[in-house]
Specification:
about 130 residues; 2 helices; two-stranded antiparallel ribbon; single chain; alpha+beta; 4 strands; elongated; two-stranded antiparallel sheet
Length: about 130
């Protein structure tokens, strides 16, 4: 019998039979640890070759005229020919199939002058 400590006695058959169950997981653990160490080393090596963060002078700057603000305007579509002819894609004025131009009337169209048209907007609605 093998003695582990003062009051612990384990039969020799149990200790001898458990060697593969101890060595196997220990080897797998060492292999996984080694793979993780190699992965961290490889990641540090790759990271070292990458460019650093941008410097302050590399960031975009405001134009000398100041910030650019949004322009809101009413647009209306260009009319298609009414003479029965067909426009080919290269004859279109825009990148899509519908080009627009600035509308003459810049007042926003509303369904009703005193109604925003939203459900639950608090208005009386059109009666």
């Amino acid at each position: 019998m093998v003695s582990f400590g003062r009051d612990r006695v384990i039969p020799h058959e149990v200790v001898a039979g458990s060697e593969p169950f101890v060595v196997g997981p220990l080897m797998v653990g060492l292999l996984v640890t080694a793979m993780l160490v190699v992965a961290v080393w490889w990641g540090m090596r790759v990271r070292r070759g990458e460019p650093g963060p941008p410097r302050a002078e590399d960031h975009p700057k405001l134009p000398e005229t100041g910030a650019v603000y949004e322009v809101s305007e009413m647009r209306e579509p260009d009319e298609m020919p009414h003479d029965g002819s067909v426009l080919t894609p290269h004859e279109l004025r825009s990148s899509g199939n519908m080009s627009t131009r600035r509308a003459r009337n810049q007042k926003r169209r509303r369904w009703s002058e005193n109604n925003s048209g939203g459900f639950g907007s608090g208005g009386l609605g059109s009666h």
